[in-house]
Amino acid sequence: MTSRRRFLGLAAGAVVLGTSGFVVVNRPSASGLLRSARPLPEPFTVPLPIPSVARPVRTEGDTDFYTLTQRVADVEILPGVRTQVWGYDGTFPGPTFHMRQGRRAVVDVRNSLTVPTSLHLHGGVTPPDSDGYPTDLVKPSGTKQHTYPMRQRAATLWYHDHRMDYTAPQVWRGLAGMCLVSDAEEENLPLPKAPYDVPLLLCDRAFDEDGSFLYPALDSGPGVHEEYGNGVLGDVILVNGAPWPVLDVDATRYRFRIVNGSNARRYELAMEPGGSLVQIGSDVGLLDRPRVHESLIVTPGERFDVVVDFSAYPVGTEVTLANRLDGPVMRFRVVRRGPLSDPPPQRLAAFEKLEPSSAAGVRTFDFRAAPHHGMRMWTINGKVFDPAESLADPRLGSVERWRLSSDFHHPVHLHLAHFQVLARNGRAPEERDAGWKDTVDVRPYETVEVLARFDGYRGRYMMHCHNLEHEDMAMMANFDIG
Ligand code: C2O
Ligand code: CU
Ligand code: CU
Which atom of ligand 1 is nearest to 301's Cα? Predict the structure, then answer.
């Protein structure tokens, strides 16, 4: 059994009794917004940092060896004050890994924190013992070797902590970073390359008077105070760890790898005063052809690979990347002319569209708040997470049709298996659902159908809600690939 005892209680006014049990109502009283206790910087004054790139400590044949230490560090996030983070190599975000299809990466993790950790590569096609299962813990002072065979397509992945019951607070304290996988197909495309290929890890945080992170943890044990049971939101938006940063750009095309690393915040990203986001990639790879978005909803765990054309603006223009659901995210200042660039090609990557007829079976998973021993829990098919139980047993190499239904916003994520969105409420998926994905936005009272391919390795993997507070409050389930 899990050690989860103290759960979200029944927040007065936060729940109503529906026909099928408890239904969470998304009302302001349950918004979960944490307010900082110190003055916040003016937006667009801090330059956008670019996380350092992880360098292999040695290379042997087709294998690159890395080390990665989880440790405490004091860093400047808000100007003029230090914030203690738990960072990979003491940085937040952690170093960006550049991996290559067909080259194996071996990462030796050392835990220098005082709490157990588990490292998960989100979007990785990883053998089970290296996947960062929530109870595969590295104890304080312990080490663990993770092997990433990287038999997968070019994609924007990210890595983060996955300790059972404590993922949300541990990621909030800084345990997250990016991993860019490349392959020959991508390399040969005329897409913006460094320095015009920029990763953007979005998350929100709140700060105490002394600059430390605020988080509404309970005094002992896992879980959050009941008014944060729907998920914790901060009042400061960080991009690559900097508050509402600014980036000086050339008037040319840029490629942005957008990662929503927030615990619970959704974004609807748009350029102001106008401009489009040309999507070239989804969670786990390039699309077949670009998709033009005027705005883009990005839920926790999702990635969007987009191209933005700053040559469409006169030099001197300030362009804001805004969250239409809330406020600004960051700003771009078009400061100089740049090299001529072509729009992304109409044909991007070879893409195999999965057909419903290829599905070996259909399964249904309902994501919902439900009473459990007198407490309100986040459940899948009425069950709280039990590491010893499995809810599905897909065969290695098979495709299955999974129906995901929901009472709330649940970004549903599958480990190992990549999928394609087939339908939303019986209708065609949205433009933003295109491509291979590992996380999908399931909205209140929506049923999203996906075709998932269980390829790679046999063994125990999991699915869960990527709202990290929901995840910690038991909204996870195992599946066993046999
Ligand atoms: Cu990004 Cu199981 O998680
Ligand atoms: Cu994952
Ligand atoms: Cu959820």
Answer: 1
What is the distance in A from the centroid of ligand 1 to the CA of 439?
Answer: 9
Give the distance from CA 382 to its chain's centroid: 25
- What separation in Å is there between the alpha carbon of 340 and the centre of ligand 2? 38
Q: Which atom of ligand 1 is nearest to the CA of 162?
A: 2
How many Å lie between the centroid of ligand 3 and the Cα of residue 470? 5
Atom of ligand 1 nearest to the CA of 134: 2
Q: Which residue has the tokens 């936060």?
A: 14
Spatial separation of the C-alpha atoms in residues 68 and 87, rounded to whole Å: 10
Q: 470 CB under 6 A from ligand 1? A: no
> Taking residues 360-385, what's their average pLDDT?
93
173 lines ligand 1 (CB under 6 A): no
What percentage of residues in the chain have a pLDDT greater than 90? 90
Closest CA to 97 of 107, 110, 108, 112: 107
According to DSSP, the residues that pair with 203 across neighbouring strands are 238
Indicate the pairing of strand 399-406 with strand 390-392. Answer: unpaired
For residue 235, what pLDDT band results from cuts at 50, 70 and 90?
very high
Q: Is the CB of 413 under 6 A from ligand 1?
A: yes
Residue 121 pLDDT > 60: yes
Cis previous bond, 116, omega within 30? no
Q: Which of 128, 125, 135, 130 is nearest to 157 (CA)?
A: 125
Q: How confident is the model at residue 1 (pLDDT cuts 50, 70, 90)?
A: very low
Q: What is the pLDDT of residues 156-208, one digit of tens each?
A: 999 999 999 999 999 999 999 999 999 999 999 999 999 999 999 999 999 99
Q: What H or E segment, with its residue span, contains residue 169?
A: helix 167-172
Ligand 1 near 122 CB (within 6 A) = yes
Confidence (pTM): 0.94
Q: pLDDT band at 30, cuts 50/70/90?
A: low
Residue bearing the CA closest to ligand 1, atom 1 = 122
Counting atoms of ligand 1 from 1, which one is nearest the CA of 122?
1
Ligand lying closest to the C-alpha of residue 462: 1
Per residue in 210-228, pLDDT (tens digit) is: 999 999 998 878 889 888 9
**Mean pLDDT across 313-318:** 98
Residue 303 near ligand 1, beta carbon < 6 Å: no
Residues 6+ apart with CB under 8 A from 12: none
